[in-house]
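RESIDUES AND SHAPES:
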Amino acid sequence: MTKPKVTFFWFRRDLRLEDNTGLFHALQSDFPVIPLFIFDDEILDNLPKNDARVSFIYDSLEKINTELNTLGSSILIKKGNTKNVWQSLIGEFDIQNVFFNKDYEPFAIKRDLAITKLLKENNIESFSYKDHVIFEEKEITKADGLPYTVYTPYKNKWLEKYHFLGSAPEYDSKPYFSNFSKIEFTFPELTAIGFERSTIKVQPHNLTQIADYKETRDFPALDSTSYLSPHLRFGTVSIRKLVNWANRKNQTFLSELIWREFFIQILFSFPNCVNHNFKPAYDGIQWRNDDEDFKRWCSGTTGYPMVDAGMRQLNETGYMHNRVRMVVASFLCKHLLINWQWGEAYFAEKLLDFELASNVGNWQWAAGTGCDAAPYFRVFNPEIQQKKFDEKGIYIRKWIPEFDLGYNEPMIDHAFARDRAIATYKAGIVK
């Protein structure tokens, strides 16, 4: 029996049908489009069975499948080693083309090169598209073609290029939805993938909450953030729509979106920064890396309320306010002299919005070892940060219910820790 010729669209971190670049182009191919998502064992094997991000991915895919069902179509869900899955699909279908959107993380680049090679060996064309960012790879560079390593000139060049375009193009796939394959695939239970539902939930995003973003974004008790970051991470929203909206409505928020692209560009250009200091001059720092101190930081029992509230919020919800992230990261690296990689790994495990580029970029910023980082002698005082940004203790009391009953003494004196950090950095930095 002759197998029908088909096109595949491979969902990854772009879990939406609207304004999806690769999907838009796939649906204009000459063959019915089978939507595919692969739960990759190489990623899943490192996660707890109740990982909240897997639950969110699963729910997002279920929403896509429900919408596809109204069109007489469905999404194909697979689990396993990605290369093995594709090898199996090549045998099962007469695949003509495969479309997908680019991912700029080192693991993803290596994976995609391997899959593209496999497809080519089987005479299957593959097409990849920019979808996760406005400007990718080497689109924003200095005059000499080298990547920017300082944010402000990068931002200025980014804005110049964006304003020259007028806006980011949006891709309406709806006129081509009839081109989805009419094959009915069974949507699996979450348990069939080897996971159970997490009690931690990704919050719906809400742009109305950031009307006064510039004035309120540093105050964690106000809850005046958009909750967009997990949705950006997994692509349930379009970065183009967001940027176009922010350009019209909220320039401060737009700057934050540009920071995201800056770090993605840094990771793409300098992939070694995942496991090494961006600034090699900092390689001589003698970190204390005390296990007991790290455990107290992780559990939110340092005796510094702003630090502890942030860590408890993270542990209970998978979220942490951005101002508080800076405080807890500075505390780990500067007060406790624990390598930023320990904190980066813990955030990677807990954050709902974990994105490698931003996580590594922000941790190295806090440690002083990264590009355009805070200077090593800048050591946040958690008590002053609390007085400035949570003066009435509303945020702290939300996450530390025992706060008014007599809270723990700080595990380390700030002045002592600051002096020790500066001395350690000075001694370790190669001139």
